[in-house]
């Protein structure tokens, strides 16, 4: 069976989960390809029996650019699954995707959400958190073990669809708590979390990873001296640049940020 996994990851936690799910499928003899959302071509959906979609929760909902990408999906009987990482509440992360794809006749197989202390720049939201606490991994290592059981459930439900021509009884509970967050633009959310990005020139090694590897909105460019520059109007506050930088050279103006770094390798490898 051919399975495609597409995802967005700002801190690397969702990327880590995507890799664990990929391994779970491969152990069961399936062919799996994994893509970051900007690198996946919509026309390639036809190549896969099952498609997985992964995203972190950002601002209590699915990141807008992820939804914009999903809205390009064709109408077809496509089996799919959803996975997510968040800091405690899904709110509308799954439901927005589910409602949209249901209208396009996509068949939901299963969902998985891993919750932790916070997988984004929690220093900006909770200023009383200490540096030591904010450096802790957002999700416990044991949580990632759920990925293997998740893949088993997906394959069982897929078999049910193929053999019985019915959709498994999987639904997403719609949550409307704090949907007012949808009314906030991505630009406002960016200013509210990490603010205007600043590069510490003493730390920056001009590696270019922030501009070439992680930014999904194209808001980062490198100037003639290979120093990153930011178009704040395009920033969607995914926190990727802050968390990816191996030298912790990118911060928000007026904020002392302590990004997670443990899972950065999963972003760099993707």
UniProtKB/TrEMBL annotation:
Quote any Pfam family the record assigns. Flavodoxin_1
Q: Where is the Flavodoxin-like domain?
A: 3-155
Q: Which Gene3D superfamilies match?
A: 3.30.70.20, 3.40.50.360
Coiled-coil residue spans: none
Q: Which GO terms describe its molecular function?
A: electron transfer activity; FMN binding; oxidoreductase activity
Taking every annotated instance into account, which residue ranges of this chain make up the domain 4Fe-4S ferredoxin-type?
195-225, 226-255
List the protein's name. Answer: EFR1 family ferrodoxin
**Which organism does this record belong to?**
Promethearchaeum syntrophicum
